[in-house]
Design goal:
Oligomer: single chain
Distance between the termini: 37 Å
Mean pLDDT: 95
Radius of gyration: 25 Å
CATH topology of one domain: Rossmann fold
Strand order of the largest sheet: 17-19-18-20-21-22
Length: 727
Amino acid sequence: MPTLTPLSAIPVPSPQPEQTYTRELLGRRFSFVGLKRLLGAADYSKAGDRSAGLSAHSEVEREAARSILSELTLAHLYEHPLTDDKGHVDAVMRVNYDIEQESFRALSGLTLGALKDHLLQAEGVEISRVGQALTGVMAAALTRLCDPHELIFLSQKIHRPTQARTLLGAPGTLSSRLQPNHPTDDLRGLTLLLYAGLSIGSGDALLGVNPAVDTVENVAAIVNLLDRVRRTLGVPTQICCLGHIKTQLACLAQGVPIEILFQSVAGTESTLVGEFDVTIELLDEAYRTMAARGPLHEQARQFLYFETGQGSEFTYGKHNGIDMSTTEALCYGLCRRYDPFMVNNVTGFIGPETHLDSFEMIVSNLQDHFMGKLLGLPMGMAPCYTLHSRITQEGQQLATELLTAAGANYYMDVCHGSDRMLAYFDTSGHDVQTLREIHGKRPGAEYLQWAIARGIFQEESGRIVRGRAWGDIGQFVSQSELATLLAATPGMHGFATAGPRPSESVSRSSRLHQAIAREAIYTELEVQSLQAALPFRIIHTAAGSKEAHLQSPDLGARLTQRSADILLTETHRVQIAVSDGLSAAAVHHNIPELVPVLLDGLQGLGLSVGQPILAPYGRVKLAESLLDRLDAELLVYLIGERPGGDAQASCSLSAYLVYRLRDPAVQEAAARFAHSPNIRFEYSVLSNIHQGGLPPLEAGAVLLEKIRDILRHQAAGNRLTALLHTH
């Protein structure tokens, strides 16, 4: 287990003035001011980097940037740390400098081009050794020089097995994280999706649920279910609930079996702290806690699980002028500090504002996989997409074929590829098994023996093939119980298979629902009919069209000047706003019932509320502008979610309860809790509001209770959860 170097003890060179990098090619002169600009111009063009003004303007300019990078030495990159917007080296960048100094000194004189040539001729052990001497910035710069063949060729040489209860990532294996997410965390639905995945040989890496509700009570209930299923069936794997790290640590303190501790991370400190509510100090504390008291601490070598993906720093406007793949590499430098059991990359998850189409997603996944493995991480991959992007299922499948050739450790198993809670599209257990059979891969050894004993797999002449029980969910559940579980689980298209694939009828059903949901993205908000039914006042965002709204989320977070001018200070503590977000259908189906319940309930609580607002083409961050303009304490922001793979779920609404920290003492308490001195807002979220999830009338009652708690405790989000848990 690694010794965590104190941040103050990590040597980092002092920031240098920006250098201008110049190159003449065929009579044309190209100049790039600063290393950030050079790195951005040298990468493939991607939507997020184009919006940030970091991409090259032409292929020739891109090649000019790459030719300059090729001749820079590792010493040059080391001596020019990238800084935040104030010119400081932030904590994430500092952690990236915690490298093998002796190895680095031996390599420091190499140019990036020479380093690439060396690695292409080296064996995997040498590539891994070199990676420990590199910062994330160096790995990102090297990636710019590699084409897809080289990214795959280099990656497949590196093996990074890790050990918890079972061994993950051994050569010749391909594993899966069984992800049975449910829109309301219904334990019956979670159980059904667990059984479905286990029946097709999934879950050898992890049984892991993303909770819809991130409270200690709910996370504990989910973990206890996973533990019960694992123990009852004797499945040799590990369990995890992907709540916030603070919630999981609180569960661990109560004796809940948090076997693998999860957290999403970011490549800039401002994103990590300000958006993910995490500090390096908290991650250090979590690591030490798991090492001392985690349920597997006596047998596991690794016990942390991180999730990353290109673009989060950009979408929050906290990328410090650094391109997406470089901030992603900085994530990996941070993850490396904790020698994690798993790292999962979800590039493609955010949407067209970061990756517009299948090519951008595929090439980014190949880059991420290589950078992570080079820096010493056990990389699982989740090439994924949302319906408001131009990424397709076919593009996703091409990505998995390439990443399997590159040696990815594991993929997700999301039943039928459609996440019922997160409303995005990931790999399925059928995809994992198909890839195993194409590429001659096996599940993890311990899990494989369990699955062979149950008849899920069998061995024939040294080959692992599907057994008589593969795909048979009846081995875990009776027909009467199955009917009960099915009734609690949306978006199920059947369990029939053909070889390692879903049957034709199942495929056609799932693809039809996906097509209907994608269509919902482009439905326009029916402003006049909504205003006729409810007394909305209409405002407008800077997004003037559906296309602008989908591809530039910052526009939907800003008011037009005219709308800003008409929103004046009011005396109401609470305001209600409605936006289409990514589904106008969600507004049409839920708002006529939900808003009257809220208005009546707020009046019953004795709270003054302003006239509801309707904002076409709105994004979540618009809430902050509305609160500031109206001088309100709390905004109930009802916004259409991105549609998932169920036609009914395309009508799903989210409610963001955004609390404005007006009182200086309250702001100070929030700043201490979040380790973010400039924090101004806290968010609580209620998702999956629709007739197939949480019906709007029931959602109204839940929201009123949450509103009461927020105003009573003067807190929202994780701080409110902690206060409620304390009381």
